[in-house]
Amino acid sequence: MLNGDNDRFKGYIQYKMNDLYSKEANLTLFTTRTPTTFMPLLEDINVNRPIVCMSGAALYDAQALKYLALEKMEKNDAVKLNKLLNKNGISPFINTVENDVLFVHNDELNNEGEKLYAESKKNAAYGNYSFNKPNMENVVYFLIVEEKARKSQIVEI
Fold first, then answer.
1. Are 17 and 44 in contact (CB under 8 A)?
2. What is the pLDDT of residue 67?
3. Other Cβ atoms closer than 10 A to 124
4. CA Rg, the chain, in Å?
5. pLDDT tens by residue, 30-53
6. Which of 11, 38, 71, 151 is most buried (CB neighbours < 10 A)?
């Protein structure tokens, strides 16, 4: 399991994954991450199959650098969810995809975790960070950055 943004597949697992890909094995990677965080982790792996990412909301071609499939949220659902979160003092990072570019939007930073996350996205490859309102027709993924103590409160919302 790779936890940090600077982690890499190393040693035997890197060798084995490249070996399997070279033999055209049907090896599918699944991640909760967006391409901005998983692509750098895979720089030493010759991935030749689409990657299921964003918790299953997208299928990404790591060679062509494009999305093969996206499960976008209904606009009304995305708007309602965003209003509910904002009403409860939560400022989510809203991920949209337009023309094969991932945009991470956030219009208010409420805690240190959000500030750190936003800072990490400002110059990230494979995406664009925007401190403004997103086009709610293209929402693929909401990300909430909060302290663990707020986790149960958020689940209750």
1. no
2. 96
3. 18
4. 17
5. 999 899 888 888 888 888 889 999
6. 38
Helices (H) and strands (E) in the chain, counts: 5, 8
Site of tokens 């219009």 = 107
Amino acid at 12: Y
Cα–Cα distance for residue pair 93/130, rounded to 1 Å: 10
**Ranges of H-type helices in the chain:** 11-22, 35-38, 75-87, 112-121, 151-156
> What confidence category does residue 1 fall into, taking pLDDT thresholds of 50, 70 and 90?
very low
- 23 — phi, psi (to 5°)? -90, 10
3-state DSSP call for residue 68? strand
CA 62/CA 64 separation, integer angstroms: 6
Tokens of 131: 């401190």
Task: Tell me if residue 132 falls in helix, strand or coil.
Answer: coil
Per-residue pLDDT at 2: 45
